[in-house]
Q: What sequence folds into this?
């Protein structure tokens, strides 16, 4: 009775050891630099956290732009979805990640509008997966200025053009000292 239990435990230990060796081989292969031209890489998980004001929990499109700062300049653009994880394998170094949250138009066929932007600087240099969480800030868009007359009674800050004198006013003769025109208040 003891021998079958010992045999069963031996098989379980052997399978566990084989699985551990296989898993360690996969990690070694991923960062295997023995191949000519191979470079060390790291994995990066990027999550963009932002709540859209028009619908809580909405899945809006996000454009991730990864720009390598040190070494050879590289720019990588990755499409993603708001709130979901995007995993990217990159060469090791310092990267600046920019997340652009787009707001989908209510009418099909129109272009998406920019809603929020966030950036973060990340250093990749480990064998384990690096996690980056970006929290974009809303983009403030100023409404275009009206060119026409204002509706309110407030005065415009822009200088008004000078009035041209009418021909009747221009042809009036100057008054003698002490005289006044009709309709003007007296200076007393």
A:
């Amino acid at each position: 009775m003891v021998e079958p239990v010992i045999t069963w435990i031996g098989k379980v230990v052997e399978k566990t050891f084989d699985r551990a060796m296989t898993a360690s081989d996969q990690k070694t292969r991923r960062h295997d630099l023995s191949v000519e031209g191979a470079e060390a890489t790291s994995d990066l998980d990027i999550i963009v956290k932002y709540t859209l004001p028009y619908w809580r929990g909405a899945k809006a499109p996000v454009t991730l732009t990864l720009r390598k700062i040190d070494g050879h300049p590289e720019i990588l653009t990755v499409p993603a979805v708001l709130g979901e994880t995007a995993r990217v394998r990159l060469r090791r170094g310092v990267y600046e990640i920019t997340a652009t949250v787009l707001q989908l138009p209510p009418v099909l066929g129109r272009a998406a509008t920019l809603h929020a932007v966030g950036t973060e600087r990340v250093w990749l240099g480990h064998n384990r997966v690096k996690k980056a969480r970006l929290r974009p800030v809303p983009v403030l868009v100023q409404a275009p200025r009206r060119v026409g007359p204002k509706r309110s009674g407030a005065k415009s800050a822009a200088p008004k053009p000078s009035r041209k004198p009418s021909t009747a006013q221009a042809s009036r003769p100057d008054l003698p000292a002490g005289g006044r025109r009709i309709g003007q208040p007296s200076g007393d």
Summary: The first strand starts at residue 41 and ends at 48. The chain has a mean pLDDT of 76. The radius of gyration is 36 Å. The chain has two helices and eight strands.
